[in-house]
Predict the 3D structure of the following.
Amino acid sequence: MIMPKHRLTLFTAIGLYLLLQWGVLQLPIWQHGNDLVSDHWVKKEAEKGQFDSDILFINIDDESLKNFEPEVGKWPWPRSVHGYLLEALKPLQPKVIIFDMFFASKDIYRLDSDIFFNEQVSGEIPIYMASSFLNESSPVEAQKLSELPSSFFIETPDNTHRKTPSTKFQKKGLQNKAQPETEMKLLLPEIISRENWKTGLVNFYRSDDLVGRNYPMFHEKEGWKIPYMSYLVARDVFDIKEPPPVIRLKYQGTEKSLYQHLSYYHALALLNNSPDEDTRAFFKDKIIFIGASATGLNDLRATPVSLSQPAMLILATALDNLIHGDYFRVYSEHWSVALSLLFSLVILCWILFKLSYKLFLIQAGLTTLILILGLWILAGYTSSKGFLFPVAAPAFWCLLTFILVSFYRGIREYLDKQMATRIFSRFMDPNVVSTLIQEDDWKKSLQSRSGPLTVLFSDIRGFTSLSESRTAEQVIDLLNKYFDTQVGAIFNHNGTLDKFIGDAVMAFWGAPLEDKNQAVNAVKAALEMSQNLEKFKQQLGKELENFEIGIGIHSGDAVVGMLGSQKRYDYTAIGDTVNLASRIEGVTKGRARILISEATMQACGDIFFYRSHGSFEVKGRKQAVNLYEPMIVKPGVDSSVQSSTN
């Protein structure tokens, strides 16, 4: 149970936790986590294989390298080989031909081969070549972008050729300096005549974990926008609408490409053998990618669906996605932040529920599980609709918050049990307390409530005169020895010690543990207290032979619970039942050592023999009270405890 004075502190802690969580969620690591989870659904969708049947791969595979080696030597082949392939392909009217390989440097030993290939690039069939931008550390010489043909760009800055300084420099009389031109280190298809250039970037656009998930439309530097290959082809050949600057790729197929493919060697052999009508129909209007997939050519990349996919497949996937507008849309990271905070707040609210720790773990844990499963189902559903929902961060914070809340509740439970043990060990048998706090709903047992109780009051007769003849230390020592014996009797019969009132003792049965035999146990405790008194008196001198007590017991409804201030409180019982038990104890003087009310006698049944002492009027009650003295436990019931009367 959370005390009211702790609620403000708890709410403040919850607010600070959510604020800290919001700050941590701004870190880029969550983007990586969401990507990793999304990879699962990307792969699931890829398994459906909704690929474009017009895309055809002509692979430079291991078989092609082996079969061509006797004719043209080892890789790289003379460019004339590609020229022959183009010469045979173009009459069959493919839609477009895309080379995923570089033709950056001239073959000085086979210039005729380069010239032949260059001649085949021209014509009505659009043929695209690969380009790449390089790192600044590359040994390649940087090129001025203003000197490259305009066909290489999709957008150029307005002030590209502005060489004059700004007006403010002129007013200050500073020396005129031309603004530096933008330069980049590029790998370009230099063997192709620039007027025939159709070239786009094929750089691998990877995430921080080296996995290719996204595909950009262009690379920008100082206002110059250089298109990526697939976007350039989609724009020029298929006239697509303007896509987002970067798309999330929707792969088709997993370990193996589902696109149609031919070995380079077999494709060239097929085309050189006077292709028939079926062959012509097969190649007509095809989107042909020519690239390498052979072992050792190192043109493999990591993607969400495979750790080693040919780079040509990434280009084809991007083009396929762009042509059909079928790429993944990614929900904003704001959703991830909002759900993380919301789910954490839901789990944090379980702190406020007054549940046992075990019940809390079950219910809060089930809530956490439902939230995480809901996220997982949501991610699967949205991915099937072409959207990727960021669920990693919400799931992580949901689980982490549950662990932290469980840890807090566990510490709180431990501290509460320690406090309860300290408090109730003063009132009850420590073994009973230990058993009590092990129950799942032990806190309910300690809550304030109204119910049936049996209350016992015991007082020492003539204590005032007894204390006058002794020092304070002697009186305290005497009382401590006496109380030790009597408290033991109360605990032996599952009673709760309420308090010591000077030389008096108050105890009750029926709380915090329910006791169906509370009246019987109270009377048995009283009989044992009477026996203990006789043993105690034997240890005293003759001057204390008149040491006597009175015990009054009554059963009825009373209110029991923690009573006091925030700094000091006790577990006690209050009400008319308590008052009457005290009054009955006062009637015992000169009559009997133990007197019980008629209500207690009826509750005990025929467990004991009784002696009636008649009716008495007690202070605070108009109706007389019938009182009885328990004499002895009936034979066959319990012979271990007998009465000792005055």
The first strand starts at residue 55 and ends at 60. Residues 392-424 form the longest helix (33 residues). Residues 159-176, 639-646 have pLDDT under 50 and may be disordered.
